[in-house]
Sequence to fold (521 residues):
Amino acid sequence: MQSSDEKERKEKYKRIFTKLGFVLFALAAWEFFTRLNSGGSFLVPPVSQMVAAFVRSLLSGELTEHIIFSLYLIGAGIGLGIVFAFFLTALYMISKRVADILDIVISIMHPLPGIALLPIVMLLVGLGAKAIIVIIIHSIIWPVIVNSVTGFKAVPKIQLELGRNIGMGEFKLIYSVMIPNAFPYILSGLKIAWSRSWRALVAAEMVFGASGIIGGLGWFIYKKRYFMEIPEVFAGLLAIIIIGYIVDELVLYRIEKNTVQKWKMSL
Amino acid sequence: MPAHLIVDNVYKNFMLDEKEIVVLDGLDFSLECGDFLTILGPSGCGKSTLIRCICSFESVNRGNILLDGQPIGKPGIDRIMVFQDFNQLFAWKSVLDNVVYPLKLNHIGKNHEDRVRIAEKYLDMVHLRDFLNAFPNQLSGGMRQRVAIARALAMEPKVLLMDEPFGALDAQTRTILQKELLQIWGKTGSTIIFITHNIQEAIILGNKIIVLSQLPARIKLLEENPMGIPRMPETPPFVKLWKKLYANLDVKRF
Fold:
């Protein structure tokens, strides 16, 4: 046991080292090649300039403001989207009619890019944060419904019979048998929701400009490109990457590791 | 005093493509407390339908099933089913919690410690004491069936229903689990109905054996097992009984 634990730990460090090594190598190469061109290329700044711009705009509060606003939009969009999605999923599971209607709605709406809807959404709910939140909701609600419904449909009959056998009522069955059984699907739906909401946010802001008074990260990037402050453009991207990585690695991956992976329920 | 479990003239049909198919055709038998009944029958003869009716997963069209004189109602913990499928545990709960949870749900045991004690006792019986904290998907098929048996026993059902629980196991594991089940039966005195299509298994386990006919299922033979435990396959009474059961089993001959 001891030695296999030791081996596992070594393997883990090796993998972290490989990943970290690759990133550092890529950054170094980036720095080197951009510096070759007498003190830095205009269109692709060296890493050091990008990091400097990142720190500078973070400290000045400009980038920080945009990050906070972006997170607010994402939080509102995901929060509302998930509530709607679970509500609709419940209706889908309860009523065959609703299921039929939702099936057709999903097949129409799911492939439709949020950006394509933005002009109409803006006419309906106005410019500003609301329009972006609606687009974010649109971009996540369909995949979350599709995943959850697939998960619930895949619950083995035997698990429901077992639940009834040990004395569960209908509500308890949903809560204690169906949801845990469908959890791997639900989680993968949430992961899709997270990455999709970012894309929707940034894309919408870039195409249609600031949402609200401040604007999110998409607007920050757009604005900086307009003034040709290229290191700041990269700083905006860096902010998105860092937030994405933190949520992916520290939130979603943690959840997965402590649930689905621990139970060996991976899809 | 009436028998512990009475299956009284039970009749059940299905509609398949607007055609009526009779599955159970007037089944009649009764069990005393502590009986171990094995039910043999060719595949597709309605063995599973019968045990599912007793568990109230399906309703009968005519006739009654009485447990201690009372008609059975909804599915409940007085009749616990152990399925053939390995996927009958909650994958998100540890082995221990899989056994503790139904106890908690039904307010069996005074407190959590008491329930853990009960669960450990039965997990001990199926030799899984070292795997209390494992998750079902980390276990082999045989071990998962053991957990399911421990979980069922812990609820102390009036009848333990087993629908070919060893059907998907390899021969070796199967033999071991048969032995263990007999030991447990000796210790707990549970009343068990055990479905199988394996004649040897039926003889080794059951003190009563029923042979069902091809569809629609009728009782072809109800046999008391004359042998005491352990029942050895090479002994003359075993062979005699085996031949008798085999002769009554409608095995399709091609």
